[in-house]
Amino acid sequence: MDSDRRRVTLTDIAFGGDCVARIDNQVLFASYGLPGEEVIVEFSENKRDYRRGRVVEVIKPSPARVEPRCRFFGQCGGCRWQHIDYPTQVALKRNIVVDQLRRIGGFRDEVPVNPTLSAEQPWHYRNHARFTARKGQLGFFVEGSRQFAAVDECHIVHPVINKVLASVQGKLPHHLHQVAVRCATNTGQLLINPDPGVRGIASSTLGAAFTANGKIGQGRTYLEEEILRRRFRIDPVSFFQVNTPQAERMVRYLIEQLQPVKTDTVLDVYCGVGTFGLSIADKAARVIGIEESKSALRDARDNAREAGNVEFILGAAEDVLAHIEERVDAAIIDPPRAGCKREVIRELRRLRPSRIVYVSCDPATLARDLKLFCADASYKIVDVQPVDMFPQTYHVESIILMTNSGSD
Predict the structure, then answer these.
(1) pLDDT per position as a tens digit, 328-382
(2) Minimal CA–CA distance to 340: which of 253, 274, 402, 265?
(3) Distance (Å, rounded) from C-alpha 260 to C-alpha 331?
(4) Residues in Cβ contact with 143 at an 8 Å cutoff, skipping those fewer than 6 apart
(5) 351 to each of 106, 176, 330, 377, how far by Cα in Å?
(6) 8 A C-beta contact, residue 334 and residue 270
(7) Three-state SS for 45?
(8) Which of 181, 220, 325, 402 could form a disulfide with 210 if both were Cys (CB 3.0 to 4.6 A apart)?
(9) Pairing relationship of beta strands 50-60 and 137-141 according to DSSP bridges
């Protein structure tokens, strides 16, 4: 066998989605495998303590291995788990959350981690896609290279986005380098940024179409989506969850865990367009949202026009929190993938809300932050709920309920 290939047995799956094996006193991380499989791995990276590679041949497959749907699987790198059956995907995601809480957070069996909340629609769920444009075509760069590949269909994006893809493929102006397409699952609206300049996109099959510079459809520069019957305006550059049905389930679960009451002052830290804070506004006395993105805060304020008990503050979370002196009863935190800055955790510990719900898209930074929250027994973890927002990928969202030591 070639020196850059090796026959191995994969033993586990690691944070980041790769399988694990041991060879020559090194850890091997291999993509496109499954625990328990005997495979041939082709190496791509060799460091002192570890190697990386990808499975190029399966000798003894796992019972959970399935045929990937997409003919671009293994090239684009976006859906690295299409070869795993869906029940196994959600089980592995829970295992990853448990593993990161133990390895990084130091938490053991005292932290309850529920089974992953699986998606009812594991395909064609994604409401936002960003395509690379080259010579009038849309596609992606082949994983690990700068080679462009045109794509005619994606199996995780919403069907409307695939219709847009079919409408514009090969017809785009050559000066475009990227095209982002967003569709609203519950309102039928479509947002394309920038305007691709192609006739026929705003057809009845695609719903109401808009672009960021107002040249398609009604000329609106934002999209509207509904979560639990509340309408949210979303700017082209504002963050919004990419899986609308799962986002609705996540909001329901968050409300159930936070249990806001009419006397509560609730902080919504990293509030974005106000999805969480506005969803609990009618159940609390006051909601204070904190966001440093100007576009997201502009959306949030527009979304809160009819909510008289909601205030949004522009600024970095650590700076705004440092100036809050009033009593805070509960807090929601939904940081970016990098997690919370230490100063944010310090200020929240100072304010001592009785309940904190932490929404995380990264198990590693989540575990790091929870360790700081729970230092000196200031807070304890009551519930950990993994949520599969991203089927066919290794990414996992989590919702964590913490209570402080004085709230028992």
Answers:
(1) 999 999 999 999 999 999 999 999 999 999 999 999 999 999 999 999 988 999 9
(2) 402
(3) 10
(4) 74, 75, 76, 77
(5) 25, 48, 10, 15
(6) yes
(7) strand
(8) 220
(9) unpaired
* CA–CA dist 291, 152 (Å, integer): 37
Q: Which amino acid is at 22?
A: R
The question of whether 361 is a catalytic residue gets the answer yes
Choice among 19, 79, 183, 361 that is catalytic = 361
pLDDT tens-digit readout, 126-172: 999 999 999 999 999 998 888 999 999 999 999 999 999 988 898 99
- DSSP letter at 116 equals P
Contact 196, 172 (CB under 8 A): yes
194: cis peptide before it, omega within 30°?
A: yes
Question: Is the Cβ–Cβ distance between 198 and 172 less than 8 Å?
Answer: yes
Determine contact, residues 309/283, Cβ cutoff 8 Å: no
Indicate left, alpha or beta for 2 from its phi (over 0: left) and psi (-120 to 50: alpha): beta
Strand partners of residue 57: 40
Please report the sign of the dihedral spanned by the C-alpha atoms of residue 7, residue 12, residue 13, residue 14.
Answer: negative
Q: Which amino acid is at 376?
A: D
Tokens of 288: 């204070």
Sheet arrangement for strand 26-31: 5-9, 38-46, 50-60, 26-31, 19-23, 12-13
Q: Which residues does 300 contact at the CB level (< 8 Å), separation at least 6?
A: 271, 272, 273, 274, 277, 278, 289, 291, 312
Within 8 A by CB and 6+ apart from 223, the residues are 182, 183, 184, 189, 190, 191, 210, 233, 234, 236
Partners of 230 in the β-ladder: 227
CA distance 269 to 332: 6
